[in-house]
Amino acid sequence: MIRLPFSGQAARRQPKLADNGTAAEMPQTAVAQADAARNRGDWQNAATFYRRAVADSPARTDLLVQLGHAEKELGNYDRAETAYRKYQGLHPRNVDIHVQLGHLFNRKGDMKAAFTWYEKALQLAPDDREIVRHVNIARNGSSRPGLDQSRRDAMRLVEENKWSQARAALRELVVGNGQIDMIAVYANVTKEDGDFDEALTLYGQYRDYASSFNPDSLEDVEIQLGHLHKIAGDYRTALAHYIKARNHQFKRAGYVDPSSSHEHEIQACISEIYTCFSAGA
């Protein structure tokens, strides 16, 4: 399928003078390190630093949401739920946190709980078309006996790296049962199963889904397409997709993280395409 410890002691030191007499660069805050880890897809360190940031800055309740996101990406669903619910308790009329709780239970395969949270979000924002769509998908899923279990079974196969079996299960869910929210997982598994042509088609569907309902995922679409073409040996096309991913990050975050995964992939592709840039040249 296609994750820097922070020293509290250093934070307490007085800034030292550099050779030119200027103050040396101060250590990054936990929030800054958490954000940087998040932006490069390093969810383990993101969760670690967001936990520290929440403890250090309890008034920054928005950090609970970021902590929940990181824990969710790590598969720590109980921890993610705890963080999300704490924020929701402090901000009961916030629409997005209800949507995020819906996404969390959707990821877990619990469509009934997902439907409950999406419906609560819709009550707060009745004209939001994206939420209406999530409600309809969750309602459709929760009304079908065994569908929740089928989603859980498919994800278990993914976690066990049983690509062919997982692919068949995901095809039935996405194509047969309309669980289009699982299109990214289906595309990744198809790539891992070695069917690159079909994976390319599915990533196109993933892009369509992200464009319509989850624009923040467009960065991931391009990263995954970059990985696909890199595996196939097409470094020029891979490079183009990694650059698109970088552009999406800049559009979303307002800056480009030089330590992000796509920055590393860009340099690797350049080295493959232009051998004069490689270390052995």
TrEMBL record:
Record keyword Cell wall biogenesis/degradation present: no
GO molecular function: transferase activity
PROSITE patterns in the cross-refs: TPR, TPR_REGION
Annotated region described as Disordered, given as residue ranges: 1-24
UniProt cross-references to SMART domains, sorted A to Z: TPR
Ranges of the TPR repeats in the UniProt entry: 61-94, 95-128
UniProt xrefs under SUPFAM superfamilies: TPR-like
Keywords attached to this entry: TPR repeat, Transferase
UniProt cross-references to PANTHER family, sorted A to Z: CELL DIVISION CYCLE 16,23,27, CELL DIVISION CYCLE PROTEIN 27 HOMOLOG
Protein name: GlcNAc transferase
